[in-house]
């Protein structure tokens, strides 16, 4: 009876021991096996039954195939293709292979046995984390995809026969770079079937910054100013006409800064300029482009009357004669320029013309000022006049003692200010200083002869019986009119600054 009583318990115990023994045997057998459990895949690679080293090799070969996969991006009707290798594809395969090799081999017996049995019923797919080099993706999008951008076009503006002609604006198309980069990265790193990829770039319409309805507002005369060059040489007159030609038709868009020097450059014969008088180191010299500062000065005064922003302006080193002190603007190399900034919401149009030895600049835009009751004027105020001092003498030993030629006339120096005065209904309401200018004084430069007649020459003259006694003097060699004349350019023409 006792045997029958304990028999069921014994059978249960034996069964449990048998199960434990089987599980232990299975687990221990797999633990001692250096191959990966069957039923494990890394991406699409079956690594079951492989050693860790074999799996790493197989996965590495697979990743090389992935690197050769192509990404094709469509931009409207255009496409751009690149390999994922070129986009810096990086995979963390070693960690995944290690994970695969540890399945069924780590943890307690029950965990290991469960992992092994699960693989008998269902395959296990492990994914390799894949990343792209975002910098390379950004470069691809900005350099290759954005190359097919269609920029928006502002309405065109020109003036023909005294009338403004405004052309149509155009809407553009552009790749949204940051969104396209994000789309590419997300597709590869999170939603990739490991095949070649085709996708469309993120694009958007780009409206013109200044559409036709804005450009059409540029029709009002804001300021106009003229100066004369009636006494200038033909070469200087050519330079003024050439400068006007280069600037005529220039448009300053809202927020943009216009460089007069940049527009007139290069100051070369190839760009239409001639040699004419210029200021250099306190003297007047012949220089290519002499006269262009009168172009800048005339434009400066037109801009003052238009009341647009003067971003940069410099006075001459010495006074000029075609405007009052402080009303001039000099151009010199890279260190003196006249820059105008459009501080309005409408394009500014610059018109330039030379007629009858007069140069005129007119600036057009959208008039918002009270032109009926409000008036402005600019007043030059001289604070100090500086005497040029004694003339500077240069001796020429090749010329006789009665030789004397003024090679450069004297220039007085000035300290001056320019003031803007505003009137409303004929009453002054404001007075504002625009600039302060200093002009150097320069003495006259004179060349005199120092050559003495020798005694033998005097004796020969006395022995000449055919000459009249009144003509037998120690008179110096007579000069031609060309040698005794002053330089052709007057102070009003000697306006171009040049680099020292």
UniProtKB/TrEMBL annotation:
Specify the G5 domain's residue ranges.
372-452
Report whether Signal shows up as a keyword of the record: yes
Task: Note down the stretches annotated as region Disordered.
Answer: 442-500
Extract the InterPro entries matched here.
G5_dom, Glycopeptide_resist_protein, Vancomycin_resist_VanW, YoaR-like_PG-bd
Gene3D superfamilies to which the protein is assigned, alphabetical = Resuscitation-promoting factor rpfb
State what protein this is by name: G5 domain-containing protein
Sequence ranges of Acidic residues compositional bias: 476-500
Does this entry carry the keyword Transferase? Answer: no
PROSITE patterns associated with the record:
G5
> What spans are recorded as compositionally biased (Basic and acidic residues)?
458-475
For this UniProt record, give its keywords in alphabetical order, as a comma-separated list. Signal
Coiled-coil spans are none
Pfam family example for this protein? Answer: G5
